[in-house]
Amino acid sequence: MKYILTLLTFLATSLAFSQDHKLNLWPGLPPLQKVSDQQEKSVQEGIVRISNVQIPNIEVYLPTQQIATGEAVLIFPGGGYGILAYDWEGTDFAKWLNSQGIAGIVVKYRLPLSTSLTDPK
Question: φ and ψ at 24, to 5 degrees?
């Protein structure tokens, strides 16, 4: 019976992980952003890779109230200064933190355009 209760508790907790809030960091255009025709790109090839972020935001993942510790961690996904490895180094960590009772806040931040890294201008 303990095994079944433990399994049900684990399943209920794992299903409870969800993105609770998504908030833009600035109303309108972010500071120093120039109007351009660049579009944000999201490619999923094993992991979600995001480039050309135009609207930076945060996604807040909250743990269930039963295990919440009141702590939070800001997560800035890496990606070699060209992309954001958004799930691999962002949302996956936020969900793991939730299992520990900690809120995970994933920041989707702007990067230089990929053409600016190779364009000699």
Answer: -70, 145
Query: Looking at the whole model, is its pTM more than 0.90?
Result: no
* pLDDT tens-digit readout, 106-120: 999 998 775 544 444
Q: What's the rounded Cα separation, in Å, for the pair 27 and 33?
A: 12
Q: Is 116 helix (H, G, I), strand (E, B) or coil?
A: helix
**Angle (deg, nearest 10), helices 2-16 and 92-99:** 140
Residue 60's nearest CA partner among 26, 24, 23, 85 is 23
| Helix residue ranges, H only, 1-121 | 2-16, 92-99, 114-118
Nearest to 65 by CA among 96, 98, 104: 98
CA distances from 103 to 11, 12, 15, 44, 68 (A): 19, 17, 16, 25, 8
